[in-house]
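Troubleshooting log. The previous structure file for this entry was overwritten by mistake, so regenerating from the original sequence record. Sequence copied from the archived sheet and checked twice against the printout by T.R.
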Amino acid sequence: MKEAIEEARKTMLSDMGGPFGAMIKDYDGNIIAVSSNTVLGDHDPTAHAEINAIRKACQKLGKHDLTGCSLYTTGYPCPMCLSAAIWANIKYIYYGTDTKEAELIGFRDDAIYKFIKKDEGQLVRLVQFDHDECLKLFSEYHDAGKQIY
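Regenerated output below.
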C-alpha cells in the first residue's frame, strides 16, 4: 500500500487528481503496476487510480486477464473501478478508506452505490433504445465466433 500512497500523494500535490492510489501485485508479491488518480490532469473522468493501474498491468503483462493478481487501493473502489477489477478477474482487493470517509471530503462514490442499489436520486436515467439493431450487432459477434472476455 505504501507505493500506492506515495504515487497518490505525488499526483495529488501536483493537482493531477484526488488522494487515490492503486497497486497491482501478483500472488508471489511482485509489483506489476502502481498508479494514481489523474482525472484532473488527463481531463478524463475514468482516470481513477484503479483503472490506471489495471491498464498498466494489462499492458505490462500483455493480456486482459489479471487472474492471480491482487489490487491495493487507498480508497474503497467506486462502482466503475470495482467493476473493472471484476472484469479483470482480480479476486482480492485491499483498500484503505471507505466510501463514507471519501464522502466526508466531498467525493460521491456512496451516492452512486445508493443509486445502483435502490435507484435513489435519479443520477441517470436508463432507457432502452434501438434494441433490434443492437441485438443484430451482438448476433454478428456471436456468429463470427469472436472471443468472449
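The longest helix spans residues 49-61. Archived copy saved in two places this time.
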